[in-house]
Amino acid sequence: MGSLVHIFVLFPKQEQTRSIRNLLVRNGFEVTAACVTGSQIMQRAESLEDGLIVCGYKFADMVCSELREYLPDGFRMIVLAPQASLEFLDIRGMEYLPMPLKPPLLMEKVREMSDALINAQKKKQQRPRQRTREELEIIEETKKLLMKNNRISEQEAHEYIQCRSMNSGVGLIEMAKMIRDSYRY
User: Which of 33, 37, 142, 168 is the S-S candidate for 176 at Cβ 3.0 to 4.6 Å?
Assistant: First the structure.
């Protein structure tokens, strides 16, 4: 699949945590961790950029809004709580479902938010890496050599490097170095 959504389950009571975890697993979701405190989630999530937390409103060590503040921006939360508790919450990155729980509604929300996280991961992977100053200088130097020696435009020089790079399966910077070095000797 390539993209993976880390799903965490967090409820103050072990039975609740196990019950929600089992519900998710039965419906085809892979649960990364099932916890009973916010600090356990923070510890397991510290090396991650994103994930989905299905949780209650209040835990032994914090409330859901505090946990949200401690997590990276890429994390999303689905908070299950009594309707009265939900009326006071409106925090970015958090969705709310009223208790008592309606399993199909939860599965729909988990699927929707998982898909959104996967799409965000794909967009992030598709963004081109920013070139270093040194890499940009190599490309510029090579283009100047090509323009001078072949009397072509900057655009044509760039396209030439790109074409050679794609046809040979060598990265653009590596190809620019090879072309540049061939002119030096």
Answer: 142
